[in-house]
């Protein structure tokens, strides 16, 4: 066991304890009020800890909830395809920049002549305007405050919000507040080569540290300086502030990552113990790199392997795909719908770029995120709601739509899996979440089998 796990065993236990029903109720009531999310409530349940309930009637197709993420990441492999805001994940730049940048970074096919490549450079730097592109305006590109050239934003407010929330500790630029930029780069490289869920965990830890520091600054300012009070590392006051900063993560359902991760289909059951030890070792390696980059002596329990494993496990069990539709797809669909004569003229300009993009012209922003309210929604194989982006939903928020009538007071449920599968297949998939579904459909199918 790690030194931190041993030294701070009591504090780690408190960080991982399940919140009381009263804590759950108060936290989510405040959260829903702050986010001005009307129409749903989060309440403790008898069987699943907590659930989301309708506070009004919903009809099929109604918007039930838009839930901003607590933390989220764009998949590393997707960053070549899409340039998006590092905070809200909306597309940024211009249609020209999106197309030119993707073709340039991927070195995609198309005509490999000098003329085409010159046009590509002009596109990427927005010096060549495509027909009708102004019908699809995008926010301009704002640089990272720390100068890392790895994350960009749609506005100064998004840049500042992300900086204050977590990025200031995870920025590799000259303005970074990390302890060691080289160590941070190694951590990021390790995550990109193994599993980018580590980047999500790093964001969660950074967010907690920065929130703790903010709370501590207020506490230090308010306390009586004349009493010469000295707070030792992780003294009572410090730890109570750390618990307060940790509260958003306290509310999430957690298990250790190496215990709850699904066994890959190519791993035999007889090799399960070895596989889970390998996963634990992978988490340990990631954590050691993160510690070298952003360790905070006043937040040491956050850097225990037990806490790190539970944070990653929480994301493994509760994350939702982050998907934002590409405006480039909308642009080419618009061109395709033009009157034939006009389309032929425009096609001469746009066709080389469309052909070079190939099927990749419609790639969305893809990633993973943790949404505090959506993560409270329980599973059903006959759900009354679904995560579904409408045409107007062009950012990283989770969007939950009613797929049938939902009465006031009824629990809002979604499906964690493809509910069209057979009973035994559904049960096998849901075993990874640690429960056996007892929804009306499963009970009926179980009795009839």
From TrEMBL:
PROSITE patterns xref list: SET
Presence of the UniProt keyword Ribosomal protein in the record: no
Keywords: Metal-binding, Zinc, Zinc-finger
Matching Pfam families: SET, zf-MYND
GO molecular function (one): zinc ion binding
Residues covered by the SET domain: 38-417
Superkingdom of this protein's organism: Eukaryota
Name this protein carries in UniProt: SET domain-containing protein
Organism name: Tagetes erecta
Phylogenetic classification of the source organism: Eukaryota, Viridiplantae, Streptophyta, Embryophyta, Tracheophyta
């Amino acid at each position: 066991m790690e030194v931190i796990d041993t030294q701070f065993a009591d504090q780690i236990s408190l960080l991982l304890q399940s919140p009381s029903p009263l804590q759950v109720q108060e936290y989510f009531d405040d959260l829903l009020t702050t986010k001005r999310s009307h129409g749903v409530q989060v309440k403790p349940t008898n069987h699943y800890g907590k659930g989301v309930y309708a506070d009004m009637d919903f009809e099929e197709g109604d918007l039930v909830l838009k839930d901003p993420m607590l933390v989220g990441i764009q998949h590393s492999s997707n960053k070549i395809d899409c340039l998006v805001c590092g905070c809200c994940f909306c597309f940024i730049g211009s249609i020209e920049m999106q197309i030119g940048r993707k073709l340039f970074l991927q070195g995609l096919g198309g005509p490999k002549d000098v003329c085409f490549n010159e046009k590509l450079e002009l596109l990427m730097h927005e010096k060549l305007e495509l027909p009708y592109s102004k019908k699809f305006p995008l926010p301009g590109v704002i640089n990272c405050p720390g100068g890392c050239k790895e994350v960009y934003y749609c506005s100064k407010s998004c840049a500042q919000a992300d900086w204050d929330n977590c990025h200031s500790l995870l920025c590799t630029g000259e303005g970074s507040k990390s302890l060691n930029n080289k160590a941070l780069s190694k951590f990021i490289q390790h995550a990109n080569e193994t599993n980018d869920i580590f980047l999500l965990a790093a964001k969660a830890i950074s967010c907690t540290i920065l929130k703790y520091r903010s709370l501590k600054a207020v506490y230090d300012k308010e306390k009586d300086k004349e009493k010469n009070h000295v707070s030792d590392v992780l003294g009572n006051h410090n730890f109570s502030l750390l618990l307060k900063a940790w509260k958003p993560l306290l509310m999430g359902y957690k298990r250790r990552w190496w215990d709850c991760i699904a066994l890959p289909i190519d791993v035999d059951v007889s090799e399960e113990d070895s596989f889970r030890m390998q996963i634990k070792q992978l988490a340990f390696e990631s954590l050691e790199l993160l510690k070298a980059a952003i360790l905070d002596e006043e937040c040491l329990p956050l850097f225990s392997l037990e806490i790190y494993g539970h944070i990653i496990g929480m994301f493994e069990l509760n994350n939702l795909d982050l998907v934002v539709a590409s405006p480039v797809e909308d642009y080419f669909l618009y061109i395709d719908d033009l009157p034939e004569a006009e389309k032929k003229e425009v096609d001469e300009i746009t066709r080389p770029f469309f052909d070079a993009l190939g099927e990749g012209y419609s790639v969305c922003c893809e990633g993973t995120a943790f949404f505090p309210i959506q993560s409270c929604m329980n599973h059903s194989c006959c759900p009354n709601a679904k995560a579904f982006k409408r045409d107007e939903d062009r950012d990283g928020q989770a969007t939950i739509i009613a797929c049938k009538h939902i009465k006031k007071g009824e629990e809002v449920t979604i499906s964690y899996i493809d509910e069209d599968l057979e009973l035994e297949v559904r049960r096998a998939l849901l075993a990874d979440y640690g429960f056996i579904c007892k929804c009306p459909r499963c009970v009926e199918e179980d009795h009839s089998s």
